[in-house]
């Protein structure tokens, strides 16, 4: 894919004012693409130094000015006793529910956004600050460790709890996220250290910053990716924006010093994603057909309910027998499937239809190959063996929207069906519609507005049927070609 001297794992970051894209390239092959559009970024997770502008005892809530256009909303139930906001209220008098005892007008308060402003409503706030990292969530002021209920194994929960308990101190406690399942001690230690540095920074800003300012913005894509890939063996990070390079440099020095040496600014004439052929790979990742080296191919069909993957041998016929050819194609497909799931970021239920194999050991080796290929995926996957129909069912955790959902929208012509009614089908629909309208209403003549292809067909291939219809209803039917009409759109107008 990329011809220059290849490094193991590279992160390529392409920044424009309206969009940031991050590509993960392993040994010259694109594995993951992350896209974030500036306009779609909310403010959930941001932490502000606010000022209480009004207390509303009747609603048990307060309006807080955080420097945005509209005052934000803080309900009494979202105020917790261990944060700065109630430091000047005696703890023993703390009553969740009585807003007048919790905050007062003019008071400075540290808050986090839990809901974006929408329409006429301001943002919704909490004083229960939480800071997420890849494996953990830091809870300032709490003194316990919680574990995600979605980690099934009690043994694993216990292991994680024991590892994280050593990092709990007077600063706060932790929640262990689902992604932490099977994480190493070093990975968890790096996460806890990252969160501790971040919390110290926020506290410092709380002292130094003026009210109505943001003291922590939920990380943008480039920063989140670097935070999440710490400890995964990244050899090089290339970024094509000087300004973001400087910001990332400071961020890495502060929070992820282990990656500082890997960061490089790319000033080249040729776009970074073109240099690594990432652009063309992204285009290919939107196609439903994926070619394999052997000549076989995959067909990937993504729907709302599930994704299906069908494997075909194509023109590939092995030197030996057919069974060997099928086995080798399926084996090659396991690698291609694992890569496509990451690249397209497909989540939820995935059904794989391998080419039927007769030998049991072939099936076992294909399953083992699929599991090994998926082991490099950060998203959690679960695979069940071959079903009675020879299908492999699996699930992959949805971490963010799929590449297709971010970059595409349903086709206006087929409304996401993936196919259009034929010209012939539309012609017959039009003939039936003329009959229906003629029975229901009294008209002198009809005009049919249809797409150029359908209009041509009515005047030529179906002219006989049209003539018979005119005789049958005793009225004239005129056909008008409409260049702006899609193939399925037509109108029957009475004159």
UniProtKB/TrEMBL annotation:
<keyword id="KW-0963">Cytoplasm</keyword>
<dbReference type="GO" id="GO:0016787">
    <property type="term" value="F:hydrolase activity"/>
</dbReference>
<dbReference type="GO" id="GO:0008033">
    <property type="term" value="P:tRNA processing"/>
</dbReference>
<dbReference type="GO" id="GO:0005737">
    <property type="term" value="C:cytoplasm"/>
</dbReference>
<dbReference type="GO" id="GO:0046872">
    <property type="term" value="F:metal ion binding"/>
</dbReference>
<keyword id="KW-0378">Hydrolase</keyword>
<dbReference type="GO" id="GO:0019843">
    <property type="term" value="F:rRNA binding"/>
</dbReference>
<dbReference type="Pfam" id="PF00575">
    <property type="entry name" value="S1"/>
</dbReference>
<dbReference type="InterPro" id="IPR019307">
    <property type="entry name" value="RNA-bd_AU-1/RNase_E/G"/>
</dbReference>
<dbReference type="GO" id="GO:0004540">
    <property type="term" value="F:RNA nuclease activity"/>
</dbReference>
<feature type="domain" description="S1 motif">
    <location>
        <begin position="45"/>
        <end position="134"/>
    </location>
</feature>
<dbReference type="InterPro" id="IPR012340">
    <property type="entry name" value="NA-bd_OB-fold"/>
</dbReference>
<keyword id="KW-0255">Endonuclease</keyword>
<dbReference type="Pfam" id="PF10150">
    <property type="entry name" value="RNase_E_G"/>
</dbReference>
<keyword id="KW-0820">tRNA-binding</keyword>
<keyword id="KW-0460">Magnesium</keyword>
<keyword id="KW-0699">rRNA-binding</keyword>
<dbReference type="InterPro" id="IPR004659">
    <property type="entry name" value="RNase_E/G"/>
</dbReference>
<protein>
    <recommendedName>
        <fullName>Ribonuclease G</fullName>
    </recommendedName>
</protein>
<dbReference type="InterPro" id="IPR003029">
    <property type="entry name" value="S1_domain"/>
</dbReference>
<keyword id="KW-0479">Metal-binding</keyword>
<keyword id="KW-0694">RNA-binding</keyword>
<comment type="similarity">
    <text>Belongs to the RNase E/G family. RNase G subfamily.</text>
</comment>
<keyword id="KW-0540">Nuclease</keyword>
<dbReference type="GO" id="GO:0004519">
    <property type="term" value="F:endonuclease activity"/>
</dbReference>
<dbReference type="GO" id="GO:0000049">
    <property type="term" value="F:tRNA binding"/>
</dbReference>
<keyword id="KW-0819">tRNA processing</keyword>
<dbReference type="GO" id="GO:0006364">
    <property type="term" value="P:rRNA processing"/>
</dbReference>
<keyword id="KW-0698">rRNA processing</keyword>
